[in-house]
């Protein structure tokens, strides 16, 4: 199992200038913010299920950048159909990393479907995202970095991680308009 | 298009071109089909077929963050699917435009269409979406133009309800 926070922080610490990072609501956003304030990040704090379609729209609009989405299994399960949409409107610059802790940690660690019989890698492959795989420990870091920066997407990587609660790390602002405008200041339209 | 007959979807398409709307997402509805066909023939417009209408909200917001304007096409039954997703453009003050083909109002055949047809304007207004409505073909272009300018100029969400009276109520035949 991957210890999610240091794993995410390592990716952020070594980030390249062409990377923009989006996170789904909940722990994924606190993970992203734990790497330090960076205008090139945008974290959801609500609108569950919308992170994947948002990242798709962003990737379509910014084909010269690499787009990385960190999100959780709960957020992903809410919008499984969006994986099919990503697969069928292929963008080569999008990597979705599902931090799969098999539980709704923020609400009391109730098990998600991935704690049961559901495998998001198979869901992604069955939806048509052929570049999909599961990582289970930190040794897979280099493979993931290659996917994020070099491989032809879209890619969906399931990162199996520990289901322990981590400290909340808040973004620069909870006001979405502040967050999105800071993020947009790093993009050329 | 339908020969020499002027189709109001052409007027919507013209607004898209004039306002540089280059992404159109949809869960298809027969009322939108001529417009979808026009957009698909246009190399400057990306057409994204969704599996659920709410994903069009997120897609549209991500595209706008990246510098592209878009519109979501759906039937009134899809509006209910979008409720929580509409928090995203609302709280981020991202312009959001949707065109809704109405069912369940004018000569409707299918009773299952009525609840969401009745609920559509209330649901949109409950989520702070400015609701415009076109009942006549002659007013479609100006209404969509006004709604799009409202959305993109004021960073708000706007919907245009395209009335069933104008689209035409489909009468089903058994067998």
Would you give an account of this structure?
- The complex is a heterodimer of chains A (189) and B (175).
- Chain A is an alpha/beta fold.
- Chain A has helices spanning 4-13, 27-34, 51-61, 73-78, 80-88, 120-127, 141-149, 176-184, and strands at residues 19-23, 41-43, 66-72, 94-100, 103-104, 110-111, 131-135, 155-160.
- In chain A, the strands form two sheets. In chain A, strands 2-1-3-4-8-7 form a six-stranded parallel sheet, sandwiched between helices. A two-stranded antiparallel sheet of chain A has the order 5-6.
- Chain A is globular and about 40 Å long.
- The N and C termini of chain A lie far apart (39 Å).
- Chain B is globular.
- Chain B is built from eight helices and six strands.
- Chain B has helices at residues 8-18, 33-40, 54-65, 76-79, 87-92, 114-126, 140-154, 164-167; strands at residues 21-26, 46-49, 69-75, 96-101, 130-134, 157-162.
- Chain B has a six-stranded parallel sheet with strand order 2-1-3-4-6-5, sandwiched between helices.
- Helix content of chain B is 42%, strand content 19%.
- Chain B has a single domain (8-167), classed as Thiamin diphosphate (ThDP)-binding fold, Pyr/PP domains (Rossmann fold), CATH 3.40.50.970.
- Chain B has 175 residues and is an alpha/beta fold.
